[in-house]
Amino acid sequence: MFTGIVEDTGEVLAVEDDASGRRVRISTGFEDLSHGQSISVSGACLTVEEYEPGEWFSVFLAAETVDRTFFDSLETGDAVNLERAMPADGRFDGHVVQGHVDATAEVVAVESVGEGLASDASETSSDESDGDWTFTFSLPEELTQYLVEKGSITVDGISLTVADRDESTFSVAIIPATYDLTTLSAKAPGDPVHLEVDVIAKYVERMV
Predict the structure, then answer these.
(1) Calpha distance 207→141 (Å, rounded)
(2) Whole-angstrom distance between the N-terminal and C-terminal Cα of the chain?
(3) If we measure between CA atoms, which residue out of 76, 23, 16, 29 comes closest to residue 46?
(4) Domains of the chain by start residue, with CATH
(5) What digits encode the pLDDT tens for the residues 123-158?
(6) Could you tell me the pTM of the whole model?
(7) What would the pLDDT profile of 179-208 be if each residue is shown by its tens digit?
(8) Which residues are catalytic?
(9) Furthest-apart CA pair in the chain: how many Å?
């Protein structure tokens, strides 16, 4: 289980394809890696195969994972959000995140609060952000019943709160720390993202 609190961003160092899937090597500063460890990579729960502590780790993406994520377009140099699984005695600062991608969506708009709409990566990217941001994402039809205002949503492994929604989009408010410490600072309209809805909503739906 994860919490959606991104610990680090990593860079894709290598991508290798074969008949059964993709193997990806990612840079990281994590020192306590182990074989078989679960790690969230931009919201997808993956398993560490090989690693060099504090340097890199590799994961294998089965065909099912590739089909359900945007990892089919992952390339060397791409940035990804990283979070290690939550320890039983750890702090629970986000919400319950399983690392199961429910759908992919797109960035619809990125707005720097008070500065108008930013329409491309050159306008949305900077080393540090001094203000808040509003990100709007497309909302796949099959997920509409799970999103409510002020409810939780995971976007690329980041625990966020739904600020507003309609039948086809939803928006979230991004504080400077989240903008600077995750891959959101590199996102622009049209870019893909992973979505995971609140699992509690799924259980409620099933029970009623």
Answers:
(1) 21
(2) 25
(3) 23
(4) 8-84 (2.40.30.20), 103-207 (2.40.30.20)
(5) 444 445 568 999 999 999 999 999 999 999 999 999
(6) 0.88
(7) 999 999 999 999 999 999 988 888 787 888
(8) 2, 38, 45, 47, 62, 100, 161
(9) 49
